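Run log // design_07
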């Protein structure tokens, strides 16, 4: 979990409040699930966990650091499971060693990527709870569209296996909309600003993601090809032809 983000009140007479982001990463499929929470308490995390399980299915193992909200949530879950005789079939919580964040590299990288780009794109803008929730779910779609491996052995096939395939059975698609990347926030209405934040995030994240893959591959010919052909990103769908060339 990370944050905080200061949210706008829906009505002028209401007080502004803080929100935090809970990020769940599947260890098997690398799928990412994002929940917006109103606090860092154990009860706030349990509520986010219940929402995630209701939408994604049951969880048998949870891995996290030793934050007090996580240890408190684990104690609550264990008590409920024992009282209902579910200790053997319920959730087993695994904590990494204290002071060893590198043991949680799988989720720490997801938190770092989202936090880095979101902070620079949102800046001083204040969104409502509903607006920020919409942005985060669309960002979740963007992240779950990244390729894990090619679907076929054909190097000309642009299709990839993505975390989205494990969630809905196919690649994730967002509704068609106009590109707002070159517009300024002052010229846009509220929901257009929300859409622009999502587009800016996906563009920046995609550029960093493909750059890291190509640099780690140490293939100068692919980097040169990327410069000639440009990124295969557009705002309505994420295509991965260059990355798939590397993965093959």
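design_07 sequence
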């Amino acid at each position: 979990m990370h944050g905080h983000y200061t949210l706008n009140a829906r009505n002028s007479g209401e007080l502004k409040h803080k929100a935090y982001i809970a990020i769940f990463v599947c260890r098997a499929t690398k799928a990412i699930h994002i929940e917006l929470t109103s606090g860092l308490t154990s009860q706030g995390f349990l509520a986010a966990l219940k929402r995630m399980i209701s939408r994604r299915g049951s969880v048998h193992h949870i891995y996290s650091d030793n934050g007090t909200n996580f240890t408190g949530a684990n104690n609550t879950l264990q008590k409920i499971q024992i009282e209902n005789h579910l200790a053997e079939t319920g959730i087993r919580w695994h904590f990494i060693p204290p002071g060893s964040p590198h043991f949680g590299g799988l989720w720490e990288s997801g938190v770092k990527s989202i936090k880095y780009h979101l902070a620079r794109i949102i800046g001083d803008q204040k969104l409502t709870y509903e607006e920020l929730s919409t942005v985060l779910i669309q960002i979740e779609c963007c992240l779950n569209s990244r390729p894990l491996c090619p679907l076929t052995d054909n190097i000309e096939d642009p299709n990839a296996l993505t975390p989205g395939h494990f969630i809905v059975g196919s690649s994730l698609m967002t509704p068609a909309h106009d590109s707002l990347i070159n517009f300024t926030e002052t010229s846009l209405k509220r929901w257009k600003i929300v859409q622009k934040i999502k587009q800016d995030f996906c563009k920046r994240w995609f550029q960093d993601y493909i750059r890291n893959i190509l640099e780690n591959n140490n293939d100068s010919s692919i980097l040169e090809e990327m410069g000639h052909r440009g990124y295969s990103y557009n705002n309505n769908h994420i295509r991965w032809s260059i990355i798939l060339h590397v993965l093959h």
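The beta strands are 2-7, 17-25, 32-37, 61-64, 92-95, 149-150, 160-161, 233-234, 237-238.
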